[in-house]
Description:
Structural class: mainly beta
Largest sheet: 5 strands, antiparallel
Number of helices: 0
Radius of gyration: 16 Å
Order of helices and strands: EEEEEEEEEEEE
Number of strands: 12
Shape: globular
Amino acid sequence: MDLTQTLVPVFVCVIAAIGLPERLQGQLLKMDRDVCPEIVTTLVPQRVFKRPTNSLQRLEIRSCLPGETENLQFVVWENNATKPSIVATTSDEAIVQIAMSGGVFVIETTGGSRDFLFVIVYEGGTSFRNGKPRIALQAVTKGRAAIRTSQTRVSVDYPDLRGEQRHVEYPIGDE
Length: 175
């Protein structure tokens, strides 16, 4: 089967671009409706005086119950939302590293001999604070990603499964 012809759902990067073997396709993020109960960590790009965190833009990393296939879940919220914009689960068990700057979140997870790299970006409007979240990158890596932030962008360098170095950049939005 030629992976360049594989159709993937919205939010999933083209698998052929990273050389992902067929046997690993099911291990990328799976879009869900159900939210796992345990919050491991919450990342909030900007606190607002006298507003509760649960009314702000945020990324929650959750742990699904033991014994289920998917172990980590990313739940992404817009401002004042009553339901999340993105609920995505991965079979990975551990967080390797997390970076957040402005409206850009970079999460690297592991579940064995490879790592998964996810980038979630708030876009739209004149500020990330008014934006809608989207999954900008999903990649399987052969080694640890190098994440750098500046006043204007987040840069990520990572080796793909072929060992080729990849580079992506995302603007962080205005402060």
